[in-house]
Amino acid sequence: MERLSTSSTHAAIDFEFTGTGRDYFRIWIVNIALTIVTLGIYSAWAKVRRLQYFYRNTRVAGASFDYHGKPVAILIGRLIAAALLIGYHVTAEFNPILMPIVLIPMMLALPWMLRQSLRFRLHYSSWRGLRFAFRGTVAGAYRVFLLWPVLTAVSLYLLGPMLHHRLKRYQHDHSFLGSTAFSMSALARSFYRPYAIVFLWFLASAVTVGLLVVSAAEQDDLIAILSILPMLFLIGFMMLCAPYMIARIQNLIWNSTNLGSHRFESRLEARKLAWIMATNLLLTVVTLGLFRPFAAVRMARYRVSSMVLLPGSALDEFVATEKANVAAMGQELAEFLDIDIAL
Amino acid sequence: MQQLDGIYFDGHTSVRHEVKLMLYAPGVVRVTGRGVERIEPMSQIVVSEAMGGAPRLFTFADSAVCEVPPQPGVDAFLSAAGHAESLMSRVQSRWSFAIASAVLLVAVLIVGYRVGLPWAASAIAARLPASVVTALSDQTLQILEQIVLEPSTLPVERRERIAVGFARLTGPDEALVAYQVLFRASPHIGPNALALPSGTIIVTDELVRLTQNDDEILAVLAHELGHVQERHGLRLMVESSIVGFVLAWYVGEVSSIAAGVSAALLQAHYSRDYERAADTYAARLLEANRMSPALLADMLEKLEASHGELATADGDEEFSRYLSSHPATRERIAVLRGRQ
Question: Which of residues 128 through 147 in chain B touch A, CB cutoff 8 A?
Fold first, then answer.
């Protein structure tokens, strides 16, 4: 009983990222060359090596993370995903009437796939020799990935932040390290604030661009209207809003997430994130993409090093559970369909 | 005896054990520390690849794991223990391989772009079922009709004269592919002709009005028929899909706009090749029918002149100068005239 009251004596522990752009560049360039030479088959191995590099260079409390995904499972998932995607595009191109027959089963399968994706990702991640796990129910997946999106659309996106909250709660409340559960206590209403601010920004900048377009139209400057202005608008909007949202949401989620008696702190700053994203984009374009591995490492270093672990007791008390294999298919499908649930 | 510092986890709990790793016997490793004492042959241990500054992970059969942070002597220890680094592990640790990969990548991309892609495109284009080709072309035609094409205002006699004249042409080596000639007015496109993969050839009134000599129109139609015969439209479509896919994958999240622009630039190279191939086909078709390939050259000159006039009328002189001295078209004209 004494230990409980001394929880504040456990010092905060910073997460650290030990990777470097130079090291990752070598892995990255080999990955790309082999992926092209093997017509994409190597991409599954490339993915495993990329994730291993980032996981193993992420450390907290004297131990690094590790990724255990199996390339062959990922490859099979990718092949199935590619086949489905080609089928989808061929149908869309040549037989649009048949679209519902293809689309509706896909939509219905999507929540299941996203749940698989979460399961795969966590099951094949470890820290201190213990695997993570995701145990969200199928019913829960259909609620957050199907019911809530439909409600959000019906509400004209007024329920958008609510959906985001339910999604993160589904994710964090059903994640485990060994047999110890994560939980998230953030309230739905705290998700509304960042969304409201981004919406106001959007409104303000859209009005500005609208005025510019109108004034350009009066001078008959058609090319400017058609291409440059909306593009600038989009880039500027992304440059400001993406980092703001990432920082706010990551902080919000992790500052209210527990792992057993342990807590986390996330101190991302939108301004620093915006600087990193803007310079990364610029240098990547200027170097025809060669800066990309350096950009990825820079980003990972900042995001990881802004995290702090606040132990509530000794970190030696996590224990493993029985192991189970999880199929890679869902994750690859979700990735191919371009769905990112990382935010 | 050399030894390494490591951190051992038993795979059941998160308890952290600081341990020493040492060679117990040839090919046998001993892990020892407070509460840990294991002696295992290397054959029972999976050692993770070298990845820059990341720790090496020694994973045991019972899923216990020992993290070995970067320290002097890791490589020597591993080779003394009889561990052979995997090929990828060695490849990823050396700059020579990184540079070789970059060179290989560039070489593969160049060869693929110059040789592989055109070959793949013509192979795929040749195997596309006729129903698909027709569906694609009909869709394109429908869109064109809605946006830029209007009914022709040319005298019916002239249209018929051209159509009949073209129908009389016989192929240089084999039967001509099925085709259909459509006359359409199009102030948007201006003087131009285009071929859809299904064999539908669209000629604008503006182009027909550029000349009084119907044979010159036949020469243009012959050029367009060349595109159909050699399936250029389909090949271009396949090529742009592949180029777009590879670019999108490489450029990734950086910018989809950049991917689009670079795809269009890479595309220009192929379309120039196709223009030349269609010229050659037209010249052979014309010659087979005792007509001069110079007819097409005359028409190209008229087209260029009209584009120049249009541009000048717009007050854009820089643009018109660029067009009228466009080397690709001048070259095409010279080649056609040189055939005589």
Answer: 132, 135-136
Q: How far apart are CA B156 and CA A319, in angstroms?
A: 88
Return the residue matching tokens 């072309």: B137
Chain A neighbors of B251, CB-CB under 8 A: 289
Binning pLDDT at 50, 70 and 90, where does residue B1 land?
low
pLDDT for B308 equals 61
Alpha-helical runs (H) found in chain B: 74-80, 87-93, 95-111, 117-127, 130-147, 156-168, 205-208, 214-229, 232-251, 256-288, 294-313, 317-324, 327-338
pLDDT in tens, B118-157: 898 888 888 888 888 888 788 888 888 888 889 999 999 9
Long-range contacts of A217-222 (CB under 8 A, 24+ apart): none
| Closest chain B residue by Cα to residue A317 | B14
Mutate to test the interface with B, among A16, A17, A22, A23 (most CBs of B within 10 A): A23
The DSSP code sequence of A133-183 is EE---HHHHHIIIIIHHHHHHHTTTTTHHHHHHHHHHHHHHTEEETTEEEE
Find the farthest-apart pair of alpha carbons in chain B and give their distance in angstroms, rounded: 103
Q: Which residue has the tokens 């199928």?
A: A138
What's the pLDDT tens digit per position in A32-55?
A: 999 888 988 998 899 999 999 999
Whether the model clears a pTM of 0.90, i.e. scores above it, the answer is: no
d(CA B55, CA B47): 10
Identify which of A196, A142, A191, A199 has the alpha carbon closest to the alpha carbon of residue A162: A191
Structural domains of chain B, with CATH? 3-92 (2.30.29), 129-338 (no CATH)
Tell me, yes or no, if B7 comes closer than 8 A to chain A by beta carbon.
Answer: yes
Give the Cα separation of A213 and B6 in Å (integer). Answer: 63
